[in-house]
Amino acid sequence: MALWGGRFINNSHKLFKEFNASLSFDYILAEEDIIASIAWSKTLVKSNIITKTEQITIESALLEILTEVKDNIKNILSSNCEDIHSWVEEQLINKIGSLGKKLHTGRSRNDQITTDLKLWCRKQVNLLLENLIELQKTFIFIADSNHDTIMPGYTHLQRAQPITFAYWCLAYVEMLRRDVSRLKDVLKRLNISPLGSGALSGTAWNIDREELALSMGFDSATNNGLDSVSDRDYIVELLSCASISMMHLSRFSEDVIFFNSGEANFIELSDSITSGSSLMPQKKNPDALEIIRSKCGRVHGSLISILVILKSLPLSYNKDMQEDKEGLFDSIKTWNDCLRIAILVLKNIKIKRKSCRKAAEEGYSNATEIADYLVKKGVTFREAHNISGQLVLRAISEKKSLNDLELSIFKTYSNLIENDIYGNITLESCLQKRLSKGGVAPSQVYQEIIKAKKRLNIF
Ligand code: ARG
């Protein structure tokens, strides 16, 4: 059923009809379109446009349609309606006849679509928040059993300073916390109802938009009709949250892919999330993580796409805006899927403590400690840095670790070095000294885990 036609003499071209239609992707807004329509029907009673009895008939038919939708949403796709709004209206008219034709009074698809989208986004934000929290909990769980799993920390992909596996986990918890906070922030601006803005200039009927907004769980109604039907900022914001969080997930993937590599050998990924090679029997590939890493690109693409669609678009509604949906739907699904997969990967990870420690011992990652040791003995940091660098060179040439150099050798580089140097450059000592807030000292990491557990209600 077309929602327009009176003004037209000729029919749409078949090609244009297909090109113009959005039902093939906006059908997923069916539930939201029905919920908003029920709220709208109640408003129509208050404005004396329909009677209470008529509203009850409309509402029960809409609820029936809702049940059918929940039963099999894909059934919608067999219709040749232009969009989800036409589809719901057609279903309603099929059920209750011409009374159904009253529902669209005072409403436009322009305020309807953005209302549906906001309701959909709100539901998705809640699901995303749940997944972001669960992923944090999973990291905390692993951190808790790896307080003393020492591994090398990297800069430039070169072994830099020792850290612990728990500390690495907590870095991701921090990133995910920012993702949560960004999403909650989006919710504040998103949860404002555009319904009742009409096509662009408000509705000519006496409608209490604030009451209507509250009835759908919005915090308030928007202030300007022109802005309301033009605004897709919430999609840009949501996709930018998605892009940042997916970037985090891609870095997580890259870290884990490296940890799992034959070269690092710090962890082993479970059979349940890896796949084999058709040719090389020995292979066990980290596909789950490689897919997360690349899905990130697709989400970034959607962000750029919506920005470009909206750029220079005149107020208010333009059909260009129909293109806001596929990227949004796809990105939110992708983000949720990737969070679930990341949880699965982590829950099944096996950490190889011995090889983590061995790698930390091997990479001269305690060279900073020698410099700090000399500073404590009165040497300037720049000079101490140089001495420590020379000692590293010496150790490399002798194929030894710094801990294995004899005291007499230390002394040829600085007379200030005494026997206590050895206690100062153990991995444990490197960690324990970094006690200040945010440092890697196990006691400090322990406190952070306790705080995170409280925040996440883990007992
Ligand atoms: N399918 C349209 C969209 O997604 C719905 C709004 C149509 N409004 C209009 N004036 N044609 O944007």
Using brief descriptors, characterize the structure shown:
elongated, Fumarase C, Chain B, domain 1, two-stranded antiparallel sheet, cytoplasm, 5% strand, binds arginine, 3 domains, lyase, single chain, 61% helix, Argininosuccinate lyase, 19 helices, Ribonucleotide Reductase Protein R1, domain 1, 6 strands, mainly alpha
Give the secondary structure arrangement, pairings included.
Elements: H1 14-20, H2 23-26, H3 30-46, H4 52-71, H5 84-96, H6 109-144, E1 150-155, E2 158-164, H7 165-190, E3 192-193, H8 209-215, E4 220-221, H9 225-230, H10 233-260, E5 267-268, H11 287-310, H12 325-347, E6 350-351, H13 353-362, H14 367-376, H15 381-397, H16 407-413, H17 421-424, H18 427-432, H19 442-455
Helix pairs in contact: 3-4, 3-6, 4-5, 6-7, 6-12, 6-19, 7-10, 10-11, 10-12, 11-12, 14-15
Bound molecules: arginine (ARG).
Describe the model.
- This protein has 459 residues and is mainly alpha-helical.
- The chain folds into three domains: 92 residues, Fumarase C, Chain B, domain 1 (Orthogonal Bundle), CATH 1.10.275.10; 227 residues, Fumarase/aspartase (Central domain) (Fumarase C, Chain A, domain 2), CATH 1.20.200; 98 residues, Ribonucleotide Reductase Protein R1, domain 1, CATH 1.10.40.
- It is 61% helix and 5% strand.
- It is built from 19 helices and six strands.
- α8 links the parallel β3 and β4.
- α6 runs parallel beside α12.
- The longest helix is centred in the first third of the chain and has 36 residues.
- The model has no long low-confidence stretch (mean pLDDT 95).
- Bound molecules: arginine (ARG).
- Arginine binds next to α6.
